[in-house]
Fold this sequence. Notes:
17 helices; 463 residues; six-stranded parallel beta sheet; Rossmann fold
Amino acid sequence: MTDALSKVTHTQKAATVNPLKSSQPLGAALAFLGVANAMPLFHGTQGCTSFALVLIGRHYKEVIPIQTTAMDEVAAILGGADHLEEAILNLKKRTNPALIGVCTTALVETRGEDFAGELKLIHERRGNELAGTEIVLAQTPDFAGSIEEGWSKATTAIIEGVVPKGETRVSPERINILPGSHLTVADLEAIRDTVEAFGLEPTILPDISGSLDGKVAERWIPTSNGGVAVEDIRTMGGAVHTIAIGEQMRRPAEALKARTKVPYTLFDTLTGLAATDRFVALLAEISGRPVPARVRRARAQLEDAMLDGHFHFGGKRVAIAAEPDLLYAMARFFAGLGAEVSCAVSASGASPILEAVPAADVVVGDLDDFETRAEGCDLLVTHSHGRQASERLGIPLMHIGFPIFDRLGAQHRHTALYEGTRDLVFEVANIVQAHHVPRTPAELDPFRDHGDTHVGRPQTAAH
Length: 463
């Protein structure tokens, strides 16, 4: 955290110009895809689902299993309970998912329907037909929030719908990991490897590292192909500790603690040397083991990378636009290496982490606000929709966040722990070097601004 709080302001424009954020139901769908054999179900029209499906597919370059209740004009007026029931029964019959994650959209939320009541009635009427499938509801209207809120709500809904209440027998080797939506597939794999290096057994929820990791499957699977099993989610109450990553995961961590009494520790970020040191120290404390040699080696590599790369950060002015937790993580990363975060734009204003962003002002707005404030900066940091601003301003763009569709391998990019921070240092340094404009000899001439060409030369006195 910074000593001084940032000033958070909301733009008052009548319209959004070049949107920065993506919708809540999209974030919820991504979280549900982190559960094995799951099917996200958008309760709304086909258009709501298609938009999210296209964005996720372009980012991950994969076939994404998402379905819709496909409400028509009549259902939009009279209510969509029948469409919801029919969709759930069809999914059960055709794909037999372990979990159906219902994500509400703006259309049905505007009507004010009782979704929880409707699902309860569906269970009462069709319980035998739906046996073996968990049905979880996340209320995620498009008109509020963004990816982070949707991800957080879906994770909380999974915990409250699947994890049984009450304390259970605790296994000292088991811990829960609740990662934020800003962490990549590669980040989750690195977190799992680090936790296992201490002899601990992690349960990661949601775990997109198994379902959105980009692999050629041996056979076609109509649901999510990988992720955390529903059976493992049910046993999360038997863990000795929960680690939540990102302010967005505070709500799920508190929900899990309320149901199971499992204590939790929340990390604002896992990007950077100090943040990773705290994470590793906690794992050592929980496991009672010394830090493994390979983890110490990764730390030494990061130290060397920081020594090599910090020359390219000092004095640079950086503009960042992202979801709150990612904005905070990247701003802390740049500020820690000597750069100035002169422009910070958030996709959402709901997170308290924005006040801790190391920038004078944080604007909750769009990419038009970002472009206006980023003029004169040395580097732009945002997702693929910032490429037009980069072209118009003539400032290089570093791709982060969601969606990234004009680069390959976004899901396999490291941004967390020692390895991820090391890779970010190299990436930024390489971008700065590639766009460095060397100064000309005339610019380096210390006398170029003096009119007298004889300055510095001995003068002969006149007789």
